[in-house]
TrEMBL record:
GO annotation, cellular component aspect: plasma membrane
Transmembrane segments: 44-62, 74-94, 100-118, 136-154, 160-180, 192-219, 231-249
Main localisation: membrane
Entry-linked PANTHER family: MEMBRANE TRANSPORTER PROTEIN YFCA-RELATED, TRANSMEMBRANE PROTEIN YFCA
Matches recorded under InterPro entries: TM_pro_TauE-like, TSUP
Protein name according to UniProt: Probable membrane transporter protein
UniProt family annotation: Belongs to the 4-toluene sulfonate uptake permease (TSUP) (TC 2.A.102) family.
Keyword line: Cell membrane, Membrane, Transmembrane, Transmembrane helix, Transport
Membrane topology according to the record: Multi-pass membrane protein
Alphabetized Pfam families for the sequence: TauE
Compartments, as annotated in UniProt: Cell membrane
Length: 254
């Protein structure tokens, strides 16, 4: 158990660091947990990873809040919708074959990577072309979709949220990352409520992992705010590329 815990804590630190900057920390933390603890049910491991995830995300959100002005109406609409469907996704996690969803996500990610790479101004400057009412409606709609995905599958949720806040709602990378953290907190909380009520959380692993995830989130947020939008854009591309490789591997070899 000691060796397993050390590995899980190191992974949690790295996941917290990545997640604080551009989301996607679950792409590292979730597969690693499944690999290190293969003798537990998948639902139990997914529930366990939600504790460190919400710890790091909460710290990142707090640090971003000191320098970013939140659009509260948009944020509340997105977070509320995401919370509700994350509960549903967590409930259905063992009832839907992920192989049906992953090829679609892979195509979307490839398009995102290409668009972000070739559009140098993507996420660098805010470009709001919608009324507040339109923003709230779109935020709620995408919150429903991404919240369901987070409850059902999970990894990559932060990156998808950042993408929506930039491409759909017109935020810059820093603002998008800050808002995404709050919404991700809501989806993690919903999953924790469900998984804990059904006994699917290993707290002996989850609590130490949460402490290390907090450490990673602290340094990740500090670096993102220090370096600014251009740095976050580059980091976003790296994480999206890693996500593409992960989903492609899952589709081709599993």
């Amino acid at each position: 158990m000691v060796n397993e815990l050390i590995l899980l804590c190191l992974v949690a630190f790295a996941a917290g660091f990545i997640d604080a900057i551009v989301g996607g920390g679950g792409l590292l933390q979730t597969p690693a947990t499944l690999l290190i603890l293969p003798h537990y049910p998948v639902a139990t491991l997914l529930g366990t990873t939600k504790i460190p995830s919400i710890a790091g995300t909460s710290l990142a959100a707090f640090k971003y809040s000191k320098q970013v002005k939140f659009n509260l109406k948009v944020l509340i609409a997105c977070a509320s919708a995401a919370f509700c469907t994350a509960l549903l996704g967590a409930f259905l996690v063992s009832r839907i074959d992920n192989s049906v969803i992953k090829p679609i996500i892979l195509v979307v990610l490839i398009l995102v990577a290409l668009y972000t790479y070739f559009n140098k101004q993507f996420g660098i400057h805010q470009a709001k072309n919608h009324t507040l009412k339109q923003q709230v409606l779109m935020a709620a709609t995408f919150g429903l979709l991404i919240g369901f995905y987070d409850g059902l599958i999970g990894p990559g949720t932060g990156s998808f949220l950042i993408l929506v806040f930039i491409a759909v709602l017109g935020f810059d990378f820093i603002g998008a990352s800050a808002h995404a953290k709050i919404v991700n907190m809501a989806t993690n909380l919903a999953a924790i409520i469900y998984f804990s009520s059904t006994g699917h959380i290993l707290f002996q692993y989850a609590i130490p992992m949460a402490i290390f995830n907090l450490g990673g989130a602290y340094f990740g947020t500090k670096l993102a705010l220090l370096k600014g939008n251009k740095f976050v854009r580059i980091f976003f591309l790296i994480v999206v590329f890693g996500t593409i490789l992960k989903f492609a591997y899952d589709i081709l070899y599993k």
